[in-house]
Design brief:
homodimer, 609 residues, alpha/beta, Ubiquitin-like (UB roll), Nucleotidyltransferase, domain 5, 4 domains, 6-stranded mixed beta sheet, 17 helices, globular
Amino acid sequence: MTVVEPVTELHPDRVRLTFEQADGQVKETRVPAGTTLFDAGSWNGVAIDSTCGGHGTCKKCKVRVASGSMPLSPVDPRAFSPEELKAGWRLACRAEARADLVVEVPPLQTRPKAALAGVGRHVILRPAVQKRYLELTEPTMEDQTPDLDRVFAAMDDVELQAPLDLLTDLGGTLRTSDWKVTAVLCDDVLIDVEPGDTTARRFALAFDLGTTTVVANLLDLETGLPAAVRSMLNKQQPFGADVITRISAVMMDPEALGTLRLRAHETLAELTAEVCEEAGVEPGEIYEVVVVGNMTMIQLALGIDPEPLSMAPFTIVAQTLPQAKASDFGLAVHPRAPAVLFPALGAYVGPDIVAGVLATGLTLDRRLRLFIDVGTNSEIVLGSSSRALATAAPAGPAFEAAQIRCGMRAGDGAIEGVRIRGDEVELTVIGDVEPVGICGSGLVDAVAELVGAGLLDRSGKFVLGEGPLAERFGKIGEENVFHLYEGVFLSQRDVRELQFAKASIATGWTILCREFGIEPTEIAQVLLAGSFGSYLSAASAVRIGLVPKLALPRIVSAGNVAGEGAKIAALSVTERHAARAVLDEVDYVELSGRADFNDLFVDQLAFPG
Amino acid sequence: MTVVEPVTELHPDRVRLTFEQADGQVKETRVPAGTTLFDAGSWNGVAIDSTCGGHGTCKKCKVRVASGSMPLSPVDPRAFSPEELKAGWRLACRAEARADLVVEVPPLQTRPKAALAGVGRHVILRPAVQKRYLELTEPTMEDQTPDLDRVFAAMDDVELQAPLDLLTDLGGTLRTSDWKVTAVLCDDVLIDVEPGDTTARRFALAFDLGTTTVVANLLDLETGLPAAVRSMLNKQQPFGADVITRISAVMMDPEALGTLRLRAHETLAELTAEVCEEAGVEPGEIYEVVVVGNMTMIQLALGIDPEPLSMAPFTIVAQTLPQAKASDFGLAVHPRAPAVLFPALGAYVGPDIVAGVLATGLTLDRRLRLFIDVGTNSEIVLGSSSRALATAAPAGPAFEAAQIRCGMRAGDGAIEGVRIRGDEVELTVIGDVEPVGICGSGLVDAVAELVGAGLLDRSGKFVLGEGPLAERFGKIGEENVFHLYEGVFLSQRDVRELQFAKASIATGWTILCREFGIEPTEIAQVLLAGSFGSYLSAASAVRIGLVPKLALPRIVSAGNVAGEGAKIAALSVTERHAARAVLDEVDYVELSGRADFNDLFVDQLAFPG
């Protein structure tokens, strides 16, 4: 995590790779020097044979470097003849790109499975969880090989470790199953030895542990398809709607940390039970979980005091958390299932944003794109495969229901869309019931439409004058309000809250554009993400200045990219490496220390002309 | 673990190293090719500077290769000038010996501490547990380095990992201690961050988890000295005196495994409390434990079914057990303390014997020595730094009290020594009380003295004729007995039991001598080990043929070498590597499959002439 100085050079440490595939397709990409050809291929949907998962042992990931220099790895001479080596053949998983290269990829021996995930990403299935059916030879006086060593010897193409508690049942399992067993591997760890052939059944569970909503995605790792998806409100809700109120709860009561932790665990456990029941999957068949969330949610769920996150200088506990287990999140899935976590760029550009960057492929695409996760804390990433910058904008509580007079969560009765046509105010209401309040997207729509109708001036003040809708204005106490429906109104203060929020976000992307040395109009695409951003109307977002003024088709809803990132990580170890690489590829820009922040912020308070 | 074919070549893959020390001392040793100069020096008491523990980062372990070839390691060019490299300077921890070398060792910059341990071994203190006092800079808006990364950055000469649960208290500790903390490292794992400066206090606990007796040795890692030593009977005793009866208990009752595990944990926990109280040490100041025992004791303590150990083909669960924690043994020491275990050569040449080989330095010494751990299962190792062979001899229950008519454990009232002078039978009795039974060493003495006095013939039959002691013979039931004391006698069957035991052991070392192609008289030293073997009279052991016929000073008691091996492992990571190397250095010879076993066994039944 470094605060960048303005630079003009675009990642001079990147190299250009051209993959020529057997079907004639050519893919070009720029990757950090030192990336293996295997990883670079995988990140770009170029499938290369492999069965060992990139450990240099299966010797299947053969590619030919047709142009450019590629030194031999220690493994190459064992995989190729001298003539082949001379012709440029290398094992892709051991070949680190240090120069521009043209790489020929032979046709696949086995058809790789792939899944569509994230924002149109084509993810080649390479789950960490692998199963192997083994028929072992029984020990004899001539062959007293110990049990664990015998299992390892049957998989000598991978170098495996085993956790100690695996051994308590191992001897019994081998002997009662007549030495016919299925080894369950998670990366290079042997997490179980099951009797008989269970290779057809393996599942992972990807969680998006949101502040408001928690989503569980049960994935069949054989097909890459979701077996069941469920969501529910985070059971931490009674402690506060946003991260700051939950951190405050911990600061006021030392017991609260344990309680909040337990509530998170209960939420995850309940969802686990639901998806298992829906899909007919035993919890013990879930061999890995992925948990994505903002840093506060992750620290709370792990029982790590979040207080330092909430006050200057906003420090997180670790950029990359140590290896976790599913049981650390209170999950009763396979007892030795690991929990995969994403790294964080900072206190407010957390694991959820790194997952979002992975899901959008922001750092893999040559187009310059702007990613905004809109919320109380809004995260903003601007970049392409050449360079990327991230920042966090404290948008304030406009998008949370609590601070808006008639605000409510996006549930039944919430006004989520507003359109003003002449003297008509058309409302879109969730659940097709009488409106009882207004949610975030409705707020943005209402303000945008009032600006469009000339009922709000650029400075954000109601224009109370005449016209067909003048009668909808009124006063609640001392405050001017605009009535959307009987008992549902927009107040002057609500407008101010939204102005502050959108100004903060706009200042964020303006500063990132400055760092890049570009105009906002040069941005190829804006991705609106998160449970709130995904529902915003592109037109309204442009009209209030929340996003740069671009043609509307270039402003797209990216959906729950954090959850998609979690899915992608469950489906592919190569993608996990890509997520870790995001730490090096994306530079963090801290807004609060900047001299130009206040001026820009004031400029952005007004609505665009 | 391989069953060796007879070979004549003596470890052609060893290289000869000559260390020339600054004080003029020269040490010569032969080590396996590939051993680092640092390890080879340490194993031979040649102290070489180092602060990073052999990770190639402190660049202090500078030596000069004065003769012989030593390629550069990747680290060398960063540690030395081109002239120095040309002159042969290398970092010892990265220099793998592949040829005969002469190595100059500069004087130490810091005086290393060393401890005497094992059988006269000089162990240079290099505990895995290290402490570092850190004064960290507080985070600021300009430096938002996360807490864990900040701690790691303060120790950038080592590449550290941290367990997840360390993080729950980390933020609080750093902030309440004003960023002045002590990092506790165990190898490359950061196991704790303690407030303030606690560098003066670090302890480890070495256990010998014997079938009969359990010994705990609390070690002060600052000095290498024992802070307290306690022993007690293994609380598994009610389930049987030897490993076979305990395994039988598990086979008959599935609940017994859990109970036996718990009893082992209770024994270890009680000893821990005792040594802590005696030494005034908090359990949380014990950062590592070492547990040594035979494979049955280790598997039982870890809850791993021991049944396969007890029946052909006698398989252990793993040659090298996965990383264990102190809590796996039920120990409430530091919550993240690791438990260090020794590898096993086979079901009956277990971790205790590998520890014994380490403690005796058998594979480090140029003399050819014979190590015998005498017991129901007797382990035998014959070797030197050139080559070593191990076997297990099923000696039967002669050395356990239960199978001897007047047998008892070596406690108060046990006859432990017998001498016949003319018509006098002199008894040495434990506790200086009336004799009530006879223990193992007394049995060996009694038989040896009766053979010497001509009262037992070579075939093991009582010579009932006349003479001054004839009146001591009598009959109990149908059986001839020799009365040692009122109510304490030696029966003809007792003699037979001992004959079987000693024949089994003698067959073991005879076969190892054959494999070596040597005569038993060429053995330089016999080490009698274990709680039983250490108390045997050398003269009696020779007279009954339990050990080869050598001059008595060459037959020595080695003491509790398993416990000493545990201590050595706690004091030095280099020695742990040496213990692991024992697996490669010692070849296992299985007796039960051999065609020559029965003939040799029958030959050895008779007492020597």
